[in-house]
Amino acid sequence: MPELPEVETIKKALESLIIGKKIISIDILKPKLIKSDLDCFKNSLIDKTFLKITRHGKYLFFHLSDDLVLINHLRMEGKYQFKHPNDEIESHARIIFHLDDGNALIYRDSRMFGMYYLSDELHYQNLDFIKKVGKEPFFLDENELFNNIKKHKETEIKTVLLNQEVMSGLGNIYVDETLFRSKINPSTKAKFITLEETKVILKNAIEVLNAAILKGGSTIKTYKSIDDVDGHFQTDLLVYGKADEPCPNCAKPLKFMKVNGRGTTYCSRCQKKKGQKFIAITGLYGSGKSKVTQLFEDEKYHIYSSDAIIKELYEEKVVQDKIKILFKIDTIDFAFIRKAIFEDEKLDKKLKNILYPPLKEKILKIFRKHKENVVIEVPLLFDAKMENMFDVIVGVNVLEERRNKFILERDKSLDFKNYYDSHNHFLDRLDECDYIIQNNKDENNLLKEVLKIKKDLDF
Ligand SMILES: [Zn+2]
Predict the structure, then answer these.
(1) For residue 185, how far is its CA from the centre of ligand 1 (angstroms)?
(2) This model's pTM is above 0.90
(3) 431 CA → ligand 1 middle, Å
(4) Domain total for the chain?
(5) How far is CA 272 from each of CA 56, 118, 248, rounded to the nearest angstrom?
(6) The domain spanning residue 68 has which CATH number?
(7) CA contacts within 13 A on the Cβ side of 429
(8) Cα separation of 128 and 133, whole Å?
(9) Residues with CB under 5 A from ligand 1 (ion)
(10) How close is the Cα of 49 to the center of ligand 1, in Å?
(11) CATH of the domain at 374
């Protein structure tokens, strides 16, 4: 989808091609793209000359002679082509403006979400859909933006910035870029954003857009603005589309999450979330995760255990039925199931396919239930691919000898250790943890570590 910089680039390119030229005829191949009166559109534009092009947000305004204003929005796939009569017209041509110099301006749109609307100088700015478009960052001051943001207290800041009534011109790419540069977590509720942070957001939004306009807009996927306009800005993006690559600031792998359904890339270390946080405690079997979780509970955090949730799941008939079918058994027999999955990797996978989706559902439900921080002990966080559900990951690490001692004290054997270790992946993913607690000293020391994290989380 073209964003503001691309639309600005197209505007500039078109200015050099069509200003001063007269429309001699129009082929309307897809009338549904025209949202104003069709006959009027066909008839009024003939013999009119393009005088200038302006832009507001992602709307283009073609100002023509006789005070006509032709409004266009490219939406998802709209693009322009400027062609000599002998050139082959490429596919998805929807509207063709034949010009008096023998060339044609062709509007192409494979998905046909774009639109045209014919208005005039007196009325076009008062059209409802135009009035709704907020000011661009270039024309907003921080107090105005701050007031606009504050109207959406409980909404995530990313969603607020995508709202074109709050501020126009930032789409998915540039909101991610702006928030990364502003060190603000995209899922932070708007009510936590300060005036000082609003200033930073505004400054970065302007910088990001200006850099993109300068580079001629970025080209994404099938989008190509106009034949000879190429985008180079994409190479300058810091986070967008770079999940799992090292953060340009701190080198921690960038994370991907959905904010109100929109794919979002961010750094969980550089962009710490304010307000409520969802915290995962993970680590190897027998590392002391439960002890750490307990200490968080002593500090008045809501705590849960994914193992306990899985136990609950085993009580549900739907889950039981699926497991019985999978293992070909009549009653749930844990010893049998455990033995079966230890021996058969495929069965283990299938069992997880039964358990992990409802486990994630239940965790999301817990998140929705609380307004304060929630801590969940999730031993197989990475195996279940749940790392992106949490704002903060706390890893608990322990020396091998000490871990064996813990396990033997509890289980009287090391039988389960190998199975759990082979599915844990914790040691390979240490760099994705926001905090690592070393559980190699006494409990007092463990408490000190937890208090340090608490202090950091409550900032
Ligand atoms: Zn970072």
Answers:
(1) 11
(2) no
(3) 12
(4) 3
(5) 33, 46, 16
(6) 3.20.190.10
(7) 25
(8) 9
(9) 247, 249-250, 267, 269-270
(10) 52
(11) 3.40.50.300
**Per-residue pLDDT tens for 59-107?**
999 999 999 999 999 988 888 888 876 777 677 889 999 999 999 999 9
CA of 268 to the centre of ligand 1 (A): 7
Domain boundaries, position 337: 278-457
Active-site residue set = 2-3, 58, 262
Q: How remote is the CA of residue 180 from the centroid of ligand 1, in Å? A: 9
Tell me, letter by letter, the H, E, C secondary structure of 372-384: CCEEEECCCCCCC
Q: How many whole angstroms from 319 Cα to the centroid of ligand 1?
A: 40
**pLDDT at site 230:** 43
Residue where a domain terminates, one of 101, 131, 161? 131
Q: Flag whether 226 is in a domain.
A: yes
180-198 tens-digit pLDDT:
999 999 999 999 999 999 9
- 38 Cα–ligand 1 center, Å: 52
* AA letter at 388: N
Q: Rounding to the nearest 10 degrees, give the CA dihedral for residues 28, 34, 36, 37.
A: 30
